[in-house]
Specification:
The structure is a homodimer of 336-residue chains. Chain A is α/β, with parallel strands linked by helices and 336 residues long. Chain A contains ten helices and 15 strands.
């Protein structure tokens, strides 16, 4: 059923059908060995990307993805009215420093690993309202910068527990426009913070699954749809364990998503060593969405996709002070 | 001159005049000794606010400000459609944990000390477009949590240089609505990253002044206005030195803002000891705007105000890696 209102529940309906007219993506060697390898704009053989620090490499990847998306759209930079971006590093320095390379308005967002869908939602909202003509949504992450910020110095060689995930080295961006050919953004469901009390910072999948279930179910109810209406229900970076929890949580509420669910974290790697549950990080859903999934949407192999990236809103300080992990998931609905 | 278009340059014109119908604010004892003391909703005598850590106190203040704003608007929490918030702490934990207290959609933003104006801009954009009826914009900061995150442990008693500013302990929030009596948000100018190469992390005023000048001048040009059209041009937290630089930079471009400019950082404290250049932090403009300035707007002592909060988008990592400080300023125009 088509929604008539602009807002229903937590879901915004975009009447003017803003479109993703182009994407840009880049990923490291480990990531490109997986399903995204064939469809990224650039596959790196060296995850330092010619830079002297991990953080600078992360920033350069993000900048590359943004630039690629703009080029792929056939636009000059001056035609881009606003950039929405954020990342996992403290004070979102990758996004801010990448934005320095582009003399365009920049609105920084933070939603951990759900930054991709929050950025797309806000960019689509700005385009749909007629405020801007072309907006870019972008994010990325880097395994090494995330490890040393959130966990341990790599040099220490700390053992990773089996419930952990591997932060993706990569970035993705898309251009959202009020005209042109592209994938329509039909609806967006704003997430709210959900916290089931998980305190294990190595078990992000378990922490984030309830927030993802909350948003997906909210989306179904707000739009009078069900799992069968979507060719793909794509969660962010729950990993293998988190994906099982998500399916269980949805099933408990009467929605069986098992037939058409995939998780960016679960599918990004051919898990062979210590990726364990799969990929994570803001770059995980950014890379999978802006390369693999968008190529399938463009080829009409998927006609209707619900993309619900997921974010764990913790910091080393909050965990150190004994807090549990508040999580969130924002969803956007795409139509070929 | 009234703008006819929705977007002109970097400035969005809000045709439907979203309104700030209520505000909430809270500040620490040092802050309440200054001009904001008389108009905050709650003046703390203890900046720990009954909590065991600085970060928890910061989060509780933010939560208090949001709750106050909603109560002052006479609304139930269920009537709030979305919360825009962010803060200075790594991974914006104050905002995320405050959002956990409210079962409403949450969109995290990060723009350092310009978070207040970015949040207001996005909330107004959502309300003006008809996506939501009531939105909250909020941010805050805490002197002690900022010092230990960005600078040194307080216990170390490190001497502060004379160009430094004092991070404000306080939080502010406002409810933006599509109906009711209130202060109209007429226009919003999106800032872009400006970096003049300043590397002194103690001299935020000098780093941020060019970004602020860029946005203010952009606003004047986009709206065909000049300094004389505003009762108050309120910059974020440039402090005394940064404010002088801002006035010089605007003057060089042909705009003399000296007659009606004030800076939240410069006016918040009666500088008596080591606040030096004045206040800073996301809470600085949040407190001044949501208490003192809004009370003057409500009393029609100011009829037209340009509020350009300013943010320094650095992190300890970026500075440690020798980067200069990219800065940004977003502006919103308010009419009584």
């Amino acid at each position: 059923m088509q929604m008539q209102e602009t807002l229903r529940g937590h879901t915004i309906h975009f009447k003017n059908a803003p479109r993703i007219i182009a994407t840009g993506s880049i990923a490291g060697p480990k990531e490109c060995a997986g399903i995204a390898g064939a469809s990224v704009d650039r596959a790196l053989d060296d995850d330092m990307f010619g830079e002297s620090t991990f953080e600078k490499a992360e920033c350069k990847m993000l900048s590359y993805a943004i630039d690629s998306a703009i080029c792929n759209a056939g636009l000059d930079r001056e035609r881009i009215d606003v950039l929405f971006s954020g990342d996992l590093l403290n004070q979102i320095i990758s996004a801010s420093f990448a934005a320095r390379d582009f003399a365009i308005p920049f609105l920084g967002v933070y939603s951990a690993c759900s930054t991709m869908s929050e950025s797309i939602m806000l960019a689509a909202a700005m385009v749909n309202a007629g405020y801007v003509k072309n907006a870019v949504a972008a994010t990325g992450s880097h395994f090494a910068s995330a490890e040393r910020q959130y966990r341990y110095p790599l040099e220490q060689g700390t053992t990773r527990p089996p419930q952990s995930q591997w932060t993706v080295t990569g970035a993705g961006a898309c251009v959202i426009s009020d005209r042109g050919e592209g994938i329509r953004i039909a609806n967006a469901t704003m997430g709210q913070v959900v916290d089931y009390g998980v305190t294990d910072v190595n078990n992000m999948g378990a922490a984030m699954a309830p927030a993802c279930a909350h948003t997906i179910i909210r989306h179904f109810r707000d739009t009078d749809t069900g799992p069968e209406d979507y060719d793909l229900i794509l969660s962010g970076d729950l990993g293998a364990l988190g994906s099982r929890l998500l399916k269980d949580l949805c099933w408990e509420k009467g929605y069986d998503i098992s037939q058409n669910h995939a998780d960016c974290g679960e599918i990004i790697y051919d898990v062979v060593e210590d990726e364990f549950q799969g990929g994570s990080g803001a770059g995980c859903s950014a890379v999978i969405f802006n390369s693999y999934v968008m190529s399938k949407l463009r080829g009409k192999l998927f006609k209707r996709v619900l993309f619900a990236a997921t974010g764990a809103l913790l910091s080393t300080v909050s965990s150190g002070q004994g807090e549990s992990i508040p999580c969130i998931s924002h969803a956007v609905e795409l139509r070929a």
